Amino acid sequence: MHVFDFNEQLHDLELRGLKRHRSVLEGPQSTHITIDNHEYLSFCSNDYLGLANDPELVEAVCEGAKQYGVGAGASHLVNGHNIAHHELEETLAQFTGFPNALLFSTGYMANIGVVTALVGRSDAIFADKLNHASLNDAAILSRAQLIRYPHLDLAVLEHRLANSRAKRKLIITDAVFSMDGDIAPVEALTYLSEKYRAMLVLDDAHGFGVLGSKGRGLLFATEIAKQHSSNIIYMATLGKAAGVFGAFVAASNEVIETLIQSARSYIYTTATPPLLSHALKKSLKLIAQGDWRRKKLMRHIQLLKEKLQTLPWPLLPSSTPIQPVIVGDVREVVRVSQALKARDILVPAIRPPTVPTGTTRLRISLSAGHQEADILRLAEELHKLAEAG
Asked: I need a labelling partner for 99 at 20 to 30 A (CA). Which of 114, 248, 250, 270 fits?
């Protein structure tokens, strides 16, 4: 094969049922979307609170554009750091209870920036085996020793922490695991980080806005929120439940200043448009006032779990909007996903390498924007497809 000939590689993906295809969305993100002039009921997005097309956020974006223009025009450390960015960082720090916060363009860039800035060759990273790809890539780029532990197995984690002689130790974990929907034991992880003098990076991309008091994230669903450990470095995204775009890291003043000086994915990129930060200040208000959205979402989760109990495909134990149905076989999960699409329902088929071989699944994402009738319709169609075999 010629060094630049990728056709064989692409053909192999196609044969194994692993080739991905993009859909082109025509219009705003919602629970009912249009693709190729056809309307679908969607269970695909991470717009957990239904804010991605909220009229108040649309209006706030327009206000921000009029006030700040469209582009930031430079990186934060040149002269792209707008007052809208600065005010949002201050609001995020206050909202999450940390001394300081720093904006990043995406969650991927935030994780890369944090991990590579805080540890290096003489250090060690302790990572849950089901962590998001961005945390895995960050660990590799840092050049620190990467020590993985079985999913949520804190006994193994403690043993490996105790035996490490690394200069700096960094535990990295998803808060809500994006493909399983289960939740990291944050209190126990915090205890271990303090006991073994390690830092703890908590990626709450799928918990921020959904979990905890006023949607302030997983830390506010625990006792830790009452007195944040200085060991914790908290990351969350702003394009999922918050409905807009971007990410932030909240931590001690010392950590944030270190990131400003050393995080390459922060330093060497153009700042996000200030209009987005302006809109996100409105988003935080809607999140804080959105208990009714979270209660509706939790009702949807409970209803779906009840209706899918008797499916032959197991539903993973998740109390979050991420509800994975394990089908197992790659071709079968694609068949079911395509059959649902033929019935005007979109549920993505998640395959390796995103999930381990043998655990292919339908990843159902619920939103406060869904109605009860939407949940019942999905459950009914899944039962029909299971019975048809």
From this structure: 270
Residue 155 inside a domain? The answer is yes
Whole-angstrom Cα distance, residue 33 to residue 281? 26
Query: What is the CATH classification number for the domain harbouring 370?
Result: 3.90.1150.10
The label of the residue with tokens 């450990």 reads 229
32 - beta bridge partners? 41
| More confident of the two residues 140 and 24 | 140
Tell me, yes or no, whether 107 lies in a domain.
Answer: yes
98 & 170 share domain? yes
Is residue 180 within 8 Å of residue 322, measured between CB atoms? yes
Q: Domain of residue 152: give its range.
A: 56-288
Written as one letter, the residue type at 275 is L
Domain count, the chain: 2
What is the average per-residue pLDDT within 227-237? 86
Q: Are residues 160 and 265 in the same domain?
A: yes
**Residue 5 within a domain:** no
Determine the Cα–Cα distance for residues 119 and 121; give it in Å rounded to an integer: 7
- Are residues 115 and 101 part of one domain? yes
Specify whether 90 is located in the same domain as 200: yes
pTM: 0.93
CA–CA distance, 276 with 337 (Å, rounded to integer): 34
Q: Are 108 and 260 in contact (CB under 8 A)?
A: no
3-state class of 287 per DSSP? helix
Compute the C-alpha angle 239/244/248, nearest 5°: 55
Token output for 177: 């695991």
- Residue 7 in any domain: the answer is no
Pairing outcome for strands 360-365 and 349-350? antiparallel
Q: How confident is the model at residue 353 (pLDDT cuts 50, 70, 90)?
A: confident
> Do 184 and 135 belong together in one domain?
yes
pLDDT for position 228: 61
Q: Do 210 and 348 reside in the same domain of the chain?
A: no
Adjacency order of strands within the sheet including 199-203: 100-104, 247-251, 232-237, 199-203, 169-174, 124-128, 145-149
Give CA separation, 327 vs 237, 265, 387, in Å: 29, 37, 14
Alpha-carbon gap, residue 130 to 316, rounded angstroms = 14
According to the model, what pLDDT value does residue 148 have? 98
What span, in angstroms and rounded, lies between the C-alpha atoms of 352 and 17?
10
